[in-house]
Amino acid sequence: LATGYWLGGAAAAGLHWVELGRTTLSGSSDTIAVTSLAAKPYMMVLGHGINSGQIQNNMRFNNDSGNNYANGYSNDGGSNSNFTSQAYVVNSDTYTSDIFQTDFIMNESDQEKIGTGQVIAQNAAGAGTAPRRTEYGLKWANTSDSITSVSLINTGSGDYASGSEVVVLGYDPDDTEGTSVWEELASVTLGSAGNNLSSGTISAKKYLWVQAHCEKSGGATNVQMEFNNDTGNNYIGRYNANGGTDGTTPSRRGMDMEAGISSINPILFNAFIINKSDKEKLVISECISRNTSGAGNAPARAEVVFKWANTSSQITEIDLYEPTNNLGAGTTLKVWGFD
Fold first, then answer.
1. Could you give the CA distance from residue 132 to residue 123 in angstroms, rounded to a whole number?
2. In the chain, alpha helices (H)
3. Residue 276 CA to chain centroid, in angstroms?
4. Spacing of C-alpha 327 from chain mean position
5. Which residues does 206 contact at the CB level (< 8 Å), separation at least 6?
6. How buried is 72 (Cβ within 10 angstroms: 0-12 exposed, 13-18 middle, 19+ buried)?
7. Is the dihedral angle over the CA atoms 213, 216, 220, 224 positive or is it negative?
8. How many CB atoms lie within 10 A of CB 95?
9. Is the peptide bond before 266 cis (omega within 30 degrees of 0)?
10. pLDDT tens, 171-200?
11. 301-332 pLDDT, tens per residue?
């Protein structure tokens, strides 16, 4: 999406993911609208929908309620569904739980707006029930305006509850002033092989962005992410490997970041987390493994969502753990965050 998206995007010189606007609900509503946004060619949308009853998440731009949207999406790794000539982007199934979404959107005024997004739904509380997920591509067929407002619209029978929030960030490669909203919280690298790489204590932030480059030492690795030194069976996830059928993990220690794929290093993963102390922590991640070296061998990919069933504290430490073989020297973990 922009130079430095992997391992350095938010903090790299000249990259300014600035906050364009946010709306936090003080009561129940079917709409969360963020308006009067500065026009930026690239946008990042973070949405946290706290449910009151059943919610189904949709998205609209510039209050355009015409049939000017199209998207394709998949729920829980199922077959793709196409929606054309819609009054909004359909970006989730119906859920009776909290949701967290991330979107990356290209926003050129004279081009149709296109983007990608993912949603994780908490599902039933606790580490005994895996979350659900939706992934989608979107299009707004407008070629005369930049996006200057973003709305989440619930079409389920319930509401977004108080505390639900949408934050819109923007990036312009020509910006030379200002400070990115993403504050670097940790940047650590293994100097020699070991089975753990820790961020150390980090500031508690509502939104976290985690990136890692993992090398192997010895056999294939099984990189797990853990929080706050919690080694109990308090993590559970859903994953898709190379476009196959979704799998789920049992409640366990940590979450496999390359679940279901060949873990021939190096691997890269990119994850976003909603990190509120009184809510289960919801994580959306994408991972790629090099697989066997050379252009004759395709890499492997995985989409992973998981939750940490903790509702009493924020994440203040992130560890990468390898339960069988060591992580290799040069393995790097970076964490950014903001409130």
1. 6
2. none
3. 15
4. 24
5. 274, 275, 276, 337, 338, 339
6. middle
7. negative
8. 23
9. yes
10. 998 877 667 899 999 999 999 998 899 999
11. 999 999 999 999 999 999 999 888 888 899 99
